[in-house]
Amino acid sequence: MIQIAIVEDDINCQKQLLGYLNRYEAECGEQFKVSVFSDGLDIAEANVSSIDIILMDIQMRNMDGMKAAQRIRAEDKDVIIIFITNLAQYALQGYKVEALDYVLKPVQYFAFVQTLKKAVRRISEGRGVYLHVLQDNAMVRLNARLVTYIESQDHKVTFHLNGKTVAARDTLKGLEEKLKGQPFARCNNCYLVNLAYVEAVKENCVTVAGERLQISRPKRKGFMEALAAYVGRG
């Protein structure tokens, strides 16, 4: 399910965008969970870690969309931002906040769909696979591509992301299902490794982003086969 935020102070435009998203779901078989914010300040102060796409107006009362996007980018480099505006000259400044695109008001369904398809495609292609995990009663979104390995201990999991860790409530078995088709493999019962970060294998240890992890005897054959297949794909 793709999580979308609409940031718009015009109620009629809010309703229009909600209607377009419902229509897109019916036509394309996607599933969206939509949140609505009425000002840039509201989204800037919200936890956007679980949001995949932000549809944002530029002209709003307390904080305009461009300033809100700058605040969001300081915390989240991956969330997709699309400006919905009647001011093309301002929307073109979106490159400063790495906006995917903009749609001009009055919003036409065809133009909206073309931009939305681009966003959905980017998510599915893994700039790309996101994990939504529960941490301290809040939903946190992690880009799987940045996870070096996942560690399981005492019924909790820890995501390692090159010097940063995120602890959450989940299981390795459940995460293996979520990451099916992605380059992850178990080297033992406690570690699920992102094969893209494997630097070396020596005897019964694998070096992953500078950290040495034990390879267990029961998991060694499957892990080495998965690694060889990954390397073989280039």
What key phrases describe this protein's structure?
single chain, about 230 residues, alpha/beta, Rossmann fold, OB fold (Dihydrolipoamide Acetyltransferase, E2P), 2 domains, five-stranded parallel β-sheet, five-stranded antiparallel β-sheet, 7 helices, 15 strands, about 35% helix
Description:
The chain has two domains: 2-127, Response regulator (Rossmann fold); 144-232, Beta Barrel (OB fold (Dihydrolipoamide Acetyltransferase, E2P)). Helices cover 34% and strands 32% of the residues. It has helices at 11-28, 40-44, 65-75, 88-91, 109-127, 172-178, 217-232, and strands at 2-7, 32-37, 53-56, 80-85, 101-104, 130-135, 138-143, 149-153, 156-161, 164-168, 184-188, 191-194, 198-202, 205-208, 211-214. The strands form four sheets. A five-stranded parallel sheet has the order 2-1-3-4-5. The protein is elongated and about 65 Å long. The chain starts with a strand and ends with a helix.
